[in-house]
Design goal:
It is built from 3 helices and 2 strands, in the order βαααβ. It has 83 residues and is mainly α. The protein has one domain. It has a two-stranded antiparallel sheet. Helix 2 (11-29) packs antiparallel against helix 3 (36-67). It is elongated, with a radius of gyration of 17 Å.
């Protein structure tokens, strides 16, 4: 499956925003509600996923840069594969 590069590049920001929204929702509804801990935990999981994706991408790009491969040399079309 192929998605455009601008969307692919924003996936970590999406997960971070989703995590912050879950945490904000959990704090907004208060600790009297039974599901608040679920919302807070889900928010932390989303934020951790955003950080993990970003770290994996940085490691891959550093490794690729060290090997001398450049996307401009390969005829990059602006579409990034998923999978």
């Amino acid at each position: 499956m192929w998605i455009p590069t601008p969307i692919y590049e924003r996936i970590p920001q999406f997960w971070l925003l989703l995590g912050l929204l879950f945490i904000a929702l959990g704090l907004y509804i208060g600790f009297d509600y039974e599901m608040v801990f679920f919302y807070l935990a889900l928010g932390l999981v989303c934020i951790a996923r955003a950080i993990w994706i970003q770290l994996l991408r940085l490691r891959y790009r550093d490794k690729k840069q060290d090997s001398g491969d450049h996307p401009a040399d390969s005829g990059d079309t602006g579409i990034t594969p998923i999978g």
